[in-house]
Amino acid sequence: MSDTPSISRQFSLCMVMETIVHCGPISRASIAKQTGLSKQTISEIARQLEEDGWIRETGRTSGHVGRTAITYEIVPDAACIATIDLGGRKLRAAIADLACNVLAEVTEPTDPRGGRHVVDQMARLARSAADHNGIPQDRIRLAIVGVPGAPDQTTGRVLMSPNIPGLDEFDVRGALSGLIGTEVILENDVNLAVIGEHWAGSATGIEDLAYVAIGTGIGAGVMVGGELVRGAGNAAGELGFLPLGSDPFEPASLKVGALERAAATAGICARYASLTGRSADVPDIFAAAARGEIAAGQVLDETARNLALTIAVLTAVTNPGRVILGGSIGSRSELVERIRALLPLCSPAPVEIGVSSLGSRVTLVGGAAIGLSHLHAALFSGGVPGAQISLPPARVGQAPASTSTATPPTAAAPSARRG
Question: Where is this region: Disordered (predicted)?
């Protein structure tokens, strides 16, 4: 029973902080109205939070009858998180602050040497993102990394990531944590994408949701009942391994899945070459289809057919309320419209198909959601179960700022799993 006052105090602190995060600038009277806490309790907590540097006075209310009141807001950069999107082709990093601002990102080509070179690069880019946004390095309390594979939470390695060599050979999480001096959380990149869309994208409020990324790889992040589905080995949603599109019993399909071999970048290019005898990249194939070239149109039709079947399987298993398509191929309107037309022909309950509204920033935004939830809990819940702060909608910054640092010219850049 002796812990009851401190537990009650922790819940009250979280309530006050949550109200300021969502509604600031806000007065103590307004906080009392929204939380039901006494003005004395709120005054004591506000004084504590202000002394600790988490909130600040912003002025006084005006335009009301009676005395003016002091208003408070959170100090956005009192603590921040780094959110990192590791792709085979590009590496992005941004900073998110306590007010849920996802600040401008920095980006550069992923180091083609992979392994520890990529870990060094992530640490450097996280520091660069902080500097670019004027955030002192010591304000970064946590880093969230979206990886194109299955993170092993026991060993810190990244499995099933063939396009970035060496990540399965050592403790990526521990190595990065040592370099940047803070805790690191690894999460599958497409899992972060579905969280990003659910928090700040085109699917807010939809509790049963899937995000399907189609680029040089194919994968899905799935939410059921508002909870992320990770699977026993953090490999749920690896749709590229569905036995569709090509022979799943060929040895090559054990490394790069049958569907991925047919419907992702390499498969699209190979199919076009087999029909025409000419090589072309994916944008050129889309452009040829737009000009009315029969072979290019046939390739897109076949790709859409495989992806419609994929979504039909996903719908039968998880029954999402919406499927969001993303990635450099999945977001193309020419493909989306084909999938929408085909889906009712292969699924008795075709799902609503949307397109990502966050584009290339979707993984960074999802990382911010995970990171800020962890950070708020660490700073303000005091370890009390159930004492937590819900996040307000994210405010996503403008266009990214590219760094000028070039990757070492030791190898050709690998393709990304998705994107």
Answer: 394-419
